[in-house]
Amino acid sequence: MTTRISVDSGATEVSAQRICAAQGDGALIVNADDWGRNHETTERIYECVLRGTVSSVSAMVFMEDSERAATVARERAIDAGMHLNLTTTFSAARSPSPLVQRQQELAKHLRRHRFSQVMFHPALIRSFEYVVSAQLDEFSRLYGASPERIDGHHHMHLCSNVLLGKLLPAGTIVRRNFSFQPGEKSLYNRLYRQIVDRKLARRHRMTDYFFSLAPLDPPERLRRIFSLARQSVVEVETHPVNADEYRFLMGDDILRWAEDCPIAHCFAVRLNGKASC
Questions:
Q1: pLDDT category of residue 18 using cuts at 50, 70 and 90
Q2: What are the pLDDT digits (tens) for 163-179?
Q3: pTM score, whole prediction
């Protein structure tokens, strides 16, 4: 579901100035994860949306604030994609017991050791299918449309059972692996990420780069990331429930750093070679 943020005219001057980065082919997307996880998380993200420093959100379903968060997103036309959750227990009171049990089964497998998401588990094929399908259906119920964009809680949308099982609808926008420069990760690590991204690109649309907002220091790191958005589509993941990220997003530095390439007002991806909302 790709929509645009519409806020009261008195929200902030910054909100009224939000435009997709039309200069060159680039776009700077600041996406907030965990929308709907709980009341505090949703409210922190919403404040940043009003401030003009968050472009879009990734919504969790079957969580304690999912219903209210979906209502807010639909009423305020906030660009919301689905945040696939395979690792954190569903907390909504109406979560079906069989679904909770299957998800806990997957969480136990995926958190067993650091390479669990790389390993394909044949015995869990049906559980993965069920838990992913249930979340896709619930998102459609809450938001009135199937998700056009999907990423994952703890990035588990990239686990082997999801990718090899082709559980994410073809044609959707899917979050790529983190972007690293030579020296930041081992050669093996970077090669594996490149292989996964190439596989994703066969069925899905992706941004050119993906980074986390944290760490905020040194400042040169974020300036370099933001500068990439002049000619490339860059997604920056953020969690405003974290105090440091919230202060940064509600402050002035991010707006000054984004002057040359404004923060997109939606999740902009390439269409016909151009960044587009």
A1: very low
A2: 999 999 999 999 999 99
A3: 0.87
Calpha distance 122→102 (Å, rounded): 15
For helices 39-51 and 243-250, the axis angle rounded to 10 degrees is 20
Q: What single DSSP character describes residue 182? A: B
pLDDT at 272: 54
Question: Is residue 197's pLDDT more than 50?
Answer: yes
Residues ≥6 apart with Cβ < 8 Å to 157:
84, 150, 151, 168, 174, 175
Q: Could you tell me where the DSSP H helices lie in the chain?
A: 13-16, 39-51, 66-76, 97-110, 125-143, 160-164, 187-203, 219-228, 243-250, 253-257
Q: In what order do the strands lie in the sheet with 149-152?
A: 173-174, 149-152, 80-84, 56-59, 27-35, 233-238, 209-212
How far is 135 from 132, CA to CA, in rounded Å? 5
The pLDDT of 151-158, averaged and rounded, is 97
Q: Is 167 left (phi over 0), alpha (psi -120 to 50) or beta?
A: alpha
- Rounded CA gap, 277 and 271, in Å? 9
* Helix, strand or coil, per DSSP, at residue 197: helix
Sign, CA dihedral 150-24-11-254, equals positive
**β-strand pairing of 173-174 with 149-152:** parallel
Q: Are 45 and 54 in contact (CB under 8 A)?
A: yes
125-143 and 66-76 are packed helices; what angle lies between their axes, rounded to 10 degrees?
Answer: 50
- Please give the pLDDT value at position 202: 95
Please state, in angstroms and rounded to a whole number, the distance separating the CA atoms of residues 128 and 130.
5
Tell me: pLDDT of 235 over 50. yes
